[in-house]
Design brief:
Layout: E1 16-17, E2 21-24, H1 31-38, H2 41-44, H3 54-64, E3 76-83, E4 89-99, E5 102-109, H4 118-133, E6 138-144, H5 148-156, E7 160-171, E8 174-184, H6 185-193
Parallel strand pairs: 5-6
Antiparallel strand pairs: 1-2, 2-3, 3-4, 4-5, 6-8, 7-8
Helix pairs in contact: 1-3
Length: 194
């Protein structure tokens, strides 16, 4: 895939549907669902935002409402993860257009919806978007080393750990070690074919 013309960006078709989930642009009526997990200290322990009350979540939601397209390097596509059976927003997935044909994926899910394969299902859909629809060559993911559940998930997705960056980031009041995972387009294709 050639790099898009300046100002054109990458075309993202929403919503993205999986077997159990709908990945879609945020809406104002997501506020109650988002507040439930944005305000949970256990959920936000390893993500870069603080525990948020309803007012702070509403303020952040205003930004998320604009993060529905990728028109320039450095932008994040931030999508609500809606459970199809209930219409409840149970988490968020992110895809950053890092640079020419490179991306970064991220995710956060409410505590009540962990351990059921939802994060893997949503993250796989974002990898598919990046590799199959947007033509990315490489997609990375970064997590705090203590976040063992995310590291295991990234490995299950077929991403390989490429780096362990000791005390690389000042995170929530202390230096933290980060793990960097990555997958190349060819590896994605091999997994899809296998």
């Amino acid at each position: 895939m050639d790099a898009p013309e300046p100002g054109v960006g990458l075309a993202v078709r929403l919503p993205i549907e999986t077997e159990r989930l709908v990945l879609r642009a945020h809406r104002m009526d997501d506020l109650d669902d988002l507040t439930a997990f944005h305000g949970d200290p256990e959920v936000v322990r390893y993500v870069p935002w603080p525990v948020r009350d309803r007012a702070a979540t509403a303020e952040t939601l205003q930004v998320k409402l604009t993060q529905t397209e990728l028109v320039a390097h450095g932008q994040w596509l931030v999508l609500a993860v809606e459970l199809r059976s209930t219409g409840t927003v149970i988490g968020e997935v992110l895809l950053k257009w890092a640079s020419d044909r490179q991306g970064e994926v991220g995710f956060a899910f409410g505590r009540d919806h962990r351990g059921q394969g939802y994060a893997a299902e949503a993250a796989t859909a974002m990898l598919r978007l990046g590799f199959d629809d947007l033509g990315f060559h490489r997609i990375t993911a970064v997590c705090i080393e203590e976040n063992a559940a995310s590291a295991r998930l990234l490995a299950r997705l077929g991403m390989r750990q490429e780096a362990r960056l000791v005390d690389n980031v000042f995170f929530k009041g202390a230096w933290a070690t980060q793990l960097v995972f990555a997958m190349l387009e060819g590896e994605w294709r091999s997994r899809a074919d296998g």
